[in-house]
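Good morning N.,

You mentioned wanting to compare the apo and holo forms, so I went ahead and generated the holo version with D-ribose. This is what I fed in:
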Amino acid sequence: MKIAICSDHGGYELKMKVIPFMEALGHEVTDFGCYSEASVDYPDFAFPMAEAVARGEFERGVAICGTGIGVSICCNKVRGIRCALCSDVLSASLTRHHNDSNVLAMGGRIIGVETAKAIVKTWLAEPFDGGRHEGRIAKISFYDKAR
Ligand code: RB5
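and this is what came out, ligand included:
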């Protein structure tokens, strides 16, 4: 799978561990920055990454900041993006099955590396259930297109 990833300084350390983990799982990962632990503003990285996913250049995106909250707010403002902030594996699984989330947000200051790896592995593997969830996603898309 082609995956876009980004972080700010608060998510940089976790991102640098998640990238080789995803590559080892066989995914092609493109890093939209940041590229060091120097202080930056998360919108400068979250918006371009999410827009690239929304344009269809990547199947999925991963966004990491200190809490995961800032990047998730940004990503969810991009038309076509359904970003899920996850700190546990069950949420990562359910957001794929129910929300067909296309961006995963995590907090580098909230969860540990092993939890993040388990979340990422689950989120990349689990399918969308469709069925009764299709109509709910359609309502989100309708709102997204109308605004
Ligand atoms: C940066 O200090 C921090 O505010 C950011 O990483 C994130 O947690 C924002 O939501």
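DSSP finds six helices and five strands in the chain.

Happy to go through it together on a call whenever suits you.

Best,
F.
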